[in-house]
């Protein structure tokens, strides 16, 4: 079985005529019939029933039709991939990312990408939100993963949302606020509150303040920190409480409690922005791998 036989088969299945297939490939009808017969012998089953008016697909032929299309699609994709790799002897991909929100999907996507495209060298640059905003304005990297508000509507970059998350109260498991079934926000307002440095995470800082406003309390900010990990470390150390996206609990391991908040519709969206350039096929390859991974995650949910 070879690809040219599959092409003859698909043409005959489309026209239901060996004569029409012969015309399409500038061959004689007996030559096409011979190639189809060889394919049938190799598969051990008849693909067509011969009739006075032409041919019709058998049940086996109908079943094999999708397989044949799949084989040829795979051949085309493989050729395109090899040609793209040949066109650029060494592909290099630069990815800027926010560390904490990307932990639940990005390492696995990169692993899958490396298996599919081992020739591509990947440079990972961990950044804070402000650094990503400055970097994307200068078009320094090919792909960014950050807050949607910071990366959307950037010139020349395409973007898509990856996931959306609601905010939660984060505290130690022995914090007094957990003793009651319902959170008393008037008491929360008196607690030392831990925040990001506003210039390092401007949008999230504004959102957290909006959440507090929605819940009718003003946080008593005791300390500010440069990164998510520093905020969580301080909470775990008993220096105060904070408000962060709920999904943080899944990808930052700490012995903390995440309590969903009441009556807050403010959400935090994580997304990707990518710059497609001629001669840089690795960006499209990476985004395809990411999309496949997100589809798998969605079906698992």
Give the name of the CATH architecture of the largest domain. 3-Layer(aba) Sandwich
What is the CATH superfamily classification of the largest domain?
A: Periplasmic binding protein-like II
Instruction: Just give the CATH class of the largest domain.
Output: Alpha Beta
Q: What is the CATH fold-level name of the largest domain?
A: D-Maltodextrin-Binding Protein, domain 2
Mean pLDDT: 87
pLDDT below 50 for ≥5 consecutive residues: which ranges? none
Structural class: alpha/beta
Work out the number of β strands: 11
Shape: elongated
The radius of gyration computed from the alpha-carbon positions, rounded to a whole number of angstroms, is: 29 Å
Strand content: 15-25%
Task: Please count the helical segments.
Answer: 13
Total of domains:
3
InterPro entries: LysR_HTH_N, LysR_subst-bd, WH-like_DNA-bd_sf, WH_DNA-bd_sf
Protein name: LysR family transcriptional regulator
Family: Belongs to the LysR transcriptional regulatory family.
Keywords: DNA-binding, Transcription, Transcription regulation
Description:
It holds the Pfam family HTH_1. It comes from Brotonthovivens ammoniilytica. It is a single chain. The protein is of the alpha/beta class. The chain has three domains: 3-87, Winged helix-like DNA-binding domain superfamily/Winged helix DNA-binding domain (Arc Repressor Mutant, subunit A, Orthogonal Bundle), CATH 1.10.10; 92-162 and 269-300, D-Maltodextrin-Binding Protein, domain 2; 165-268, 3-Layer(aba) Sandwich (D-Maltodextrin-Binding Protein, domain 2). 47% of the residues lie in helices and 22% in strands. The protein has helices at 3-15, 18-24, 29-43, 59-87, 99-102, 106-116, 129-137, 148-151, 185-188, 202-214, 228-236, 248-251, 282-300; strands at residues 48-50, 55-57, 92-97, 121-126, 143-147, 158-172, 192-196, 220-225, 242-245, 256-260, 267-274. Strands 3, 4, 5, 6, 9, 10 and 11 form a seven-stranded mixed beta sheet that branches. The protein has a two-stranded antiparallel ribbon with strand order 1-2. Strands 7-8 form a two-stranded parallel ribbon. α10 links the parallel β7 (192-196) and β8. The radius of gyration is 29 Å and the shape is elongated. The mean pLDDT is 87.
């Amino acid at each position: 079985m070879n690809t040219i036989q599959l092409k003859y088969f698909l043409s005959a299945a489309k026209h239901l005529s060996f004569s029409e297939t012969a015309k399409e490939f500038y061959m004689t009808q007996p030559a096409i019939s011979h190639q189809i017969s060889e394919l049938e012998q190799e598969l051990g089953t008849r693909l067509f029933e011969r009739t006075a008016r032409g041919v019709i697909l058998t049940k086996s032929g109908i079943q094999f039709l999708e397989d044949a299309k799949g084989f040829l699609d795979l051949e085309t994709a493989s050729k395109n991939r090899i040609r793209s790799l040949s066109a650029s002897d060494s592909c290099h991909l630069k990815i800027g990312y926010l560390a904490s929100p990307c932990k639940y999907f990005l390492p696995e996507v990169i692993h899958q990408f490396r298996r599919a495209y081992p020739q591509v060298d990947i440079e990972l640059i961990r950044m804070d939100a402000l650094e990503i905003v400055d970097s994307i304005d200068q078009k320094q990297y090919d792909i960014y993963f950050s807050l949607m508000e910071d990366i959307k509507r950037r010139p020349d970059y395409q973007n898509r949302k990856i996931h959306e998350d609601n905010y939660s109260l984060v505290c130690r498991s022995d914090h007094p606020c957990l003793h009651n079934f319902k959170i008393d926000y008037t008491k929360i307002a008196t607690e030392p509150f831990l925040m990001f440095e506003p210039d390092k995470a401007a949008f999230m800082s504004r959102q957290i303040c909006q959440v507090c406003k929605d819940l009718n309390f003003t946080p008593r900010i005791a300390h500010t920190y440069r990164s998510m990990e520093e905020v969580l470390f301080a909470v775990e150390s008993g220096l105060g409480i904070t408000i962060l996206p709920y999904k943080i609990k899944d990808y930052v391991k700490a012995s903390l409690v995440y309590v969903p908040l009441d009556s807050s519709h403010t959400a935090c969206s994580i997304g990707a922005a990518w710059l497609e350039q001629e001669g840089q096929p690795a960006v499209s390859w990476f985004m395809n791998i990411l999309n496949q991974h997100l589809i798998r995650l969605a079906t698992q949910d």
